[in-house]
Structure formats: structure tokens, C-alpha cells
Design goal:
Layout (H helix, E strand, L loop, with lengths): L5 H8 L2 H6 L18 H10 L1 E5 L5 E6 L3 H7 L13 E4 L12 E7 L2 E6 L1 H13 L5 E5 L15 E7 L3 H9 L11 E6 L2 E8 L6 E7 L3 H15 L3 E4 L1 H4 L2 H5 L15 H8 L5 H4 L2 E2 L33 H7 L6 E7 L1 H9 L21 E2 L1 E5 L2 E12 L4 E8 L8 E6 L16 E8 L5 H6 L11
Parallel strand pairs: 1-11, 12-14
Antiparallel strand pairs: 1-7, 2-5, 2-6, 3-4, 4-5, 7-10, 8-9, 9-10, 13-17, 13-19, 15-16, 15-18, 16-17, 18-19
Helix pairs in contact: 6-7
């Protein structure tokens, strides 16, 4: 009989770490959108110096949650306060397990008192779908999973298109699209603007720190909206650069969001055990992979909590109850790790690349602009032979002319410290995305998060601007 659940797959492998380190899913793929429209260097530079168009229509799940208990349901399953969550607002929604470990995150929009749209990666979607049935909530959920990673030429349809335009030249395009000045939309607020003959919703947002708007609407309008955006850019005299999937995944390196923490659902009894039995053997959680130099037999060593990611800013402590509250109360004030940016040493990066042109077994290849060879990365960061942190998401920034990664470090580590990261897998694994290679050390300088000065100085107060203690 075929294995039918995540719990059964873990049992087959012996433990969750072995399962995830030997996944044969291959490279992590951002689906459907072309890898490059011009080239990834120009596309990265556009969000810093000009205007860039992101097509976000395919790589994220979407949930529509509505019904009499929609707010109560979401509030109970996320750390966020809903006290000031009015209509036409958005939040960064973060659910945790009963043990306080982060499952993932979504952007949540409130469209009506009883209707919300959530957009993000699969772990949060899967968790909420399970919770809706597990707790017998009076809610209706429509799930639109992300587009297939490899559609093999088949037609792809979504519920909504989703575009984002950002960069210092973006406001000129907005005014042309709207036929006049757009409303003064506050950060993470939503309003309506005109695009051609359509009225569309627009979220004030900016993933890499530059000013921007995210717009969405029915998927059947996608091509019409795209043509109107491109025409508005021409009319405004702005060279709007379309961003492909290669550059898209790197924008967060400058703004400081870790997009793929390992969901903390592989251990725990009760609700979590039932969840692992509910999740299919082909789910993200079962098929995903862990890459990097850090290997532990204990899957919980890869988990993170909201304090480590800077999300404690969101916690609605005044709520009477929510999943994970008791665990988070114990973590509050504890010696939690903190999020940082690692700036990789130039000479060490060049040494790794040069090994690919020499005889013998090379070091682990650094793919540009982003070595996306696993769903979740975990590279050891050392000081004096002791592990003091973990690098979790990496890539090259043409804007900063360096390789950066995001991760967590012990509280004793200070900005400006130079640490050592162990790069490469410690052994041959079953991952098809990993070639035979050697490990090596790369020096990394602990740097601010966000790394881009514009993101640190221009964002509204949030986890991006809050200094870690």
C-alpha cells in the first residue's frame, strides 16, 4: 500500500531530518514566470534605481476565509492582534504551533467583516485548512494552491492575478495608470485605483524596501491589466523593468524577510500528531528538503520562534487565548536568538567559485543570483569552533555587490562581528539538487537587518525597523 501521510513518510525514513535531507524533489522552483525578461542584474537594479514590475500571480497559495466565525478562527490560529484590523487593511499573519514554533506566514487582507484573503507559502495554508476542520469552526475556506512548479506546457489558471510595481520611479506610473494622483494610501492599507477601464485594489507595500503598490483582481483580467501597466509606464516616460523569477527571489535579502523557515510541525503530540496524519505524503511538508552544513538528528534544532524572527512585535498578548500563547509567554524575555544579515567575504566567495575551474572535487557551487537548491537552508555559523548561529536564506545582490544571507545568531553576537560559516553538505545525500563537493569555510560579517539602508529608514515601524535587544 502506498504511503498516504506525512506521519507515514517520516516513519519510513526513520526520522524527519533524514526524510528532508534526502528529499528528491530537486531545485526549489518559482513557477510559470519567465526566469529573466532582460537579465537578473538589471532586474535587481530596477527596484533600487528605477521601477520594477513583479508578477506574483503564481508562486503563492491563496486562501479565502469567510463566514460568521472567520475573524475568531484566524485570531485563534495566529499570534497577531486583530483589535485594529479594520476593513481595507493588511497584516503579516504568523501562526505558531502549541509549542510556539513558527509554521510560516501569510499576508492577510480584510475585505469584509466576515471575509479575509490570505496569500503566502503552503505551510500556513495547509495548517489553516486542517484547523478549520479540526476545531469544527463555522467558516468556509476556498484554497487556490500555487501554480505547478513544472506545468509541462499545460494551461495554468488562478483565482486572482497579483502584480507589484515598486521603485523610486513607480509613483509616475501610478499617476498615469490612475488618470491622476492616486489616494494617499498608508503602509499596509488598501484602497481602490483605476487601471484602464477597471477599478482594482491596491496595497501599499514594497518587498525590497522601495515604495510600491501591490494590485490584484480576477485572473481573467490579467493580460488586460498588464497591457495597461506597460502602456502607463511608456506614457510616463519610465523604463519599467519586468522582473523574472531568478531575480524575484533575491529581493528579500535587502529587506530582511526570511521566506522559508522550516515549519515546526514535525514533532509534538495531540493536535500536531493528528496534523501529520492529515497531511498527505505529497504535501510540501513531506516532499520539501533541508540543505546546508548543519545536520542534527533532532528536527527541533531547525525550528524558529517569533522572537527570533522579530515577529514578537505582532503578538496580541491581550487576546484571551490563541494557539501557542502559553508557550510564547514562557519564551518572552528568554535568551532567544536574533535575526541578522550575514555579508559573505568576497575573497572566500571567489575561492569557492574558482574551485569549479580546478581539477578534483570542487566546493559546493554558489549559484547566482540565488542557490535555491533546497526548500529550507541551514548552514552552520561558528565562532572559535562553536556554533553561534544559522544561515537560512542566501543570494547575491547586484545592488550591494556582495553575497548576503539571512539567519539567526546567539544574543552574544554583535553587529560587526566576523564569524565563520561552513558552506556545503557534510556528506552525500539523496538530494538531486546537490552535486559531489567539498565543504569549506566562508567568513561572514554580521550586518544590519534590513541590509538596505532605504528599507531600514523608510519602512513604517515593524519588524524591519525594530532593533533587536
Amino acid at each position: 500500500m502506498a504511503t498516504s501521510s506525512l506521519e507515514a513518510v517520516i516513519k519510513d525514513f526513520g526520522n524527519a531530518v533524514r526524510m528532508l535531507r534526502n528529499s528528491r524533489i530537486g531545485m526549489y522552483v518559482y513557477p510559470v514566470v519567465a526566469p529573466e525578461f532582460s537579465n537578473w542584474r538589471v532586474e535587481q537594479q530596477a527596484w533600487r534605481d528605477g521601477a520594477v514590475l513583479f508578477d506574483q500571480s503564481h508562486h503563492m497559495d491563496e486562501l479565502i476565509v469567510e463566514g460568521p466565525q472567520a475573524e475568531e478562527f484566524l485570531s485563534h490560529h495566529g499570534i497577531n492582534s486583530f483589535a485594529n484590523f479594520d476593513l481595507n487593511r493588511a497584516k503579516h499573519f504568523v501562526p505558531v504551533t502549541p509549542a510556539g514554533h513558527v509554521i510560516g506566514d501569510h499576508i492577510i487582507f480584510r475585505e469584509r467583516q466576515d471575509k479575509f484573503i490570505l496569500v503566502g507559502r503552503a505551510p500556513t495554508s495547509n495548517w489553516l485548512l486542517f484547523c478549520a476542520a479540526y476545531g469544527k469552526w463555522n467558516v468556509r475556506i476556498k484554497h487556490d494552491p500555487r501554480s505547478p512548479s513544472r506545468p509541462e506546457g499545460e494551461r495554468v489558471l488562478r483565482t486572482h492575478y497579483r502584480y507589484q510595481i515598486q521603485g523610486p520611479e513607480a509613483p509616475k506610473i501610478f499617476e498615469k495608470m490612475n488618470g491622476g494622483p492616486i489616494p494617499d494610501i498608508k503602509f499596509f492599507h488598501v484602497d481602490w485605483i483605476n487601471i484602464g477601464s477597471k477599478k482594482v485594489q491596491a496595497l501599499r507595500h514594497g518587498m525590497s524596501g522601495a515604495p510600491g503598490l501591490e494590485i490584484w483582481g480576477p485572473y481573467e483580467d490579467k493580460n488586460y491589466i498588464l497591457s495597461c501597466i506597460l502602456q502607463a509606464a511608456r506614457d510616463a516616460g519610465v523604463d519599467l523593468v519586468r522582473c523574472g523569477s531568478r531575480a524575484y527571489s533575491t529581493n528579500t535579502l535587502e529587506s530582511g524577510w526570511i521566506p522559508s523557515p522550516l515549519p515546526g510541525i514535525y514533532t509534538g503530540d495531540g493536535m500536531l500528531a493528528e496534523y501529520r496524519q492529515w497531511l498527505g505524503a505529497d504535501s510540501y511538508e513531506a516532499a520539501g528538503s533541508i540543505g546546508g552544513s548543519y545536520v542534527s538528528d533532532n528536527i527541533e534544532d531547525y525550528y524558529v520562534n517569533p522572537f527570533e524572527l522579530g515577529y514578537d512585535f505582532y503578538i496580541g498578548w491581550k487576546k484571551s487565548d490563541f494557539i501557542g500563547k502559553a508557550a510564547l509567554e514562557k519564551m518572552k524575555g528568554a535568551n532567544n536568538r536574533k535575526k541578522v544579515t550575514f555579508e559573505w567575504n568576497r575573497e572566500d566567495v571567489l575561492k569557492v567559485i574558482a574551485s569549479g575551474f580546478e581539477d578534483g572535487i570542487p566546493y559546493k557551487w554558489i549559484d547566482f543570483p540565488q542557490p535555491n537548491y533546497a526548500s529550507t537552508s541551514a548552514d552552520m555559523v561558528m565562532r572559535d569552533g562553536k556554533m553561534v548561529g544559522m544561515s537560512m536564506f542566501n543570494g547575491y545582490s547586484y545592488n550591494e555587490r556582495c553575497v548576503l544571507s539571512l539567519g539567526v545568531v546567539d544574543q552574544s553576537v554583535q553587529e560587526g562581528d566576523v564569524l565563520t560559516m561552513l558552506w556545503g553538505e557534510p556528506e552525500t545525500t539523496g538530494k538531486t539538487s546537490t552535486e559531489k563537493h567539498r565543504q569549506t569555510e566562508i567568513r561572514v560579517r554580521v550586518s544590519p537587518t534590513p541590509y538596505a539602508r532605504q528599507a531600514r529608514e523608510s519602512y513604517a515601524e515593524s519588524w524591519r525597523t525594530k532593533k533587536n535587544a
